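Quick entry between incubations.
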Amino acid sequence: DAKTTQPNSMESNEEEPVHLPCNHSTISGTDYIHWYRQLPSQGPEYVIHGLTSNVNNRMASLAIAEDRKSSTLILHRATLRDAAVYYCILIRQGAQKLVFGQGTRLTINP
Amino acid sequence: EADIYQTPRYLVIGTGKKITLECSQTMGHDKMYWYQQDPGMELHLIHYSYGVNSTEKGDLSSESTVSRIRTEHFPLTLESARPSHTSQYLCASSLAGVGYTFGSGTRLTVV
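Done. Structure below.
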């Protein structure tokens, strides 16, 4: 499975945008880029995913580099409830399981 | 609202006891998974199932066992609990490997 690299931790302020980077230089053509997050004392939850084009949903936006070797999860206006560990995961088309790395622990300051 | 349910939420049990952690989903998902997570650490896949009567071991070796007799139900059993089994156990499901939904987890403490 292709690996991803994320910063261990990031910090931002409430009501400001947050850009969470992810490097995946060994990504293959059939790998989808998924983001999940895990709030304290909860199971992970799906945030967003994409293949080649940038994606937007009610939670976040996903910006994918043209060569697909990196991507950025964008929280447009962070709230305290966005404090969580964010996981960037590559899922190959037809893959049967989700494999987590260490993720980025995001702290939001009031 | 949760469509995947784990019980109990917390469990404290003595060494040597047999325990079963329950996981049920109401979404008709074919694939189900069990992950183990120690505090502040990453999630490790310990078991998964492609469907009824299908079970596979995950990437992290575990002394637990699972069964999948019904699509919606994927219980995890420890025949003889030990303190080393103390951890959080998270159940998840997906439809054809897309869009995983996780339960809230069972926090197990073996004393």
